[in-house]
Amino acid sequence: MSARLPAKRDAQAKRHDLLKATNASGKAAEARAEELAAIFKATPQLAAAIGLGLTGHLFHLLIGDNVLRREAVRRQALDLRESLRQAGDGALEELLIERLIVSWLAASDAEEQRAGHFREGCSTEVGRFWDGHVACTSADFARAAKTLASVRRLRLPSVRQLNIGQQQVNVMPATDDKAQPTHRA
Amino acid sequence: MTWCRDQRYWYHSRRVGGRVISEYRGAGEAGALLAEIDKAEQRQARAERQRERAGQDEARAVQAALGDLACASDELVAEVLTAAGYYRHQRGAWRRRRHRP
User: What is the pTM of this model?
Assistant: First the structure.
């Protein structure tokens, strides 16, 4: 029972972060909490992903039980996470960074395995399988990077265009506008 | 791989183009030695095949888990952005809804 409590607290903290990410406050926060609860109920795999269950499982699959490899990869993953973080990141960005790191790890591992097979010599079928695996993991890595970039781009203030005389002028809105995506309608 | 004629001659069988071809390897002491070598090679090849199959199963598990993670995070992104007033233009890029006075 006591072993479950930290995990529960962690899940609550993640949920809190997620609420912050949607830029909710007051009654709106409560409304969105219900909305998110409904989402989690409809897609249980989402809750597992936010609890990092999936990424943890993937890390174990990719790294295995070798302590040296595990610690080296953990260090690299931490460095990568730090380099990807930006000020004002919410839980959504954290999750996408986590996904990007796991995808990067999977793509690197696939490349390494394919290189090992080709170096030792393998049959056409085996080579084709590892080619497919590399293609799949690389595509996933690219998709993860694109998703993170899209979310970051949406957080930037949109440029407004004005026509003054015969010239088109791009105007940046006030800086406090870019904190989080907000309702405009 | 088999012994023929009262275990006097050692033959090595292999499949070539859908047909099984038996090759004579040796008889007597030399045949017994070659039989041991062939069996050891066969065991090694079987172990390598099993290792390869296990590696491919692990790779498939990684692909499945990555797919699950991608689906889950894409759904979350869609829900959060929709709640924040964005929409997907013709199922493509996300766009902010225009302010209409």
Answer: 0.65
Q: Are A110 and A130 in contact (CB under 8 A)?
A: yes
Smallest Cβ distance to B80: which of A22, A62, A184?
Answer: A22
**Residue B16 identity (one-letter amino acid):** V
- What is the number of residues in chain B? 101
How far is it, in rounded angstroms, from Cα A74 to Cα B86?
35
Shortest Cα distance, chain B CAs vs residue A6, angstroms: 23
State which residue of chain A sits closest to B92, comparing Cα positions: A150
User: Between chain A and chain B, how many beta carbons pairs sit less than 8 Å apart?
Assistant: 112
Among candidate residues A40, A175, A97, A32, the one with its CA nearest the CA of residue B84 = A32
Q: How far apart are CA A47 and CA A59, in angstroms?
A: 18
| Residue in chain B nearest A46 by alpha carbon | B72
ipTM of the complex: 0.75
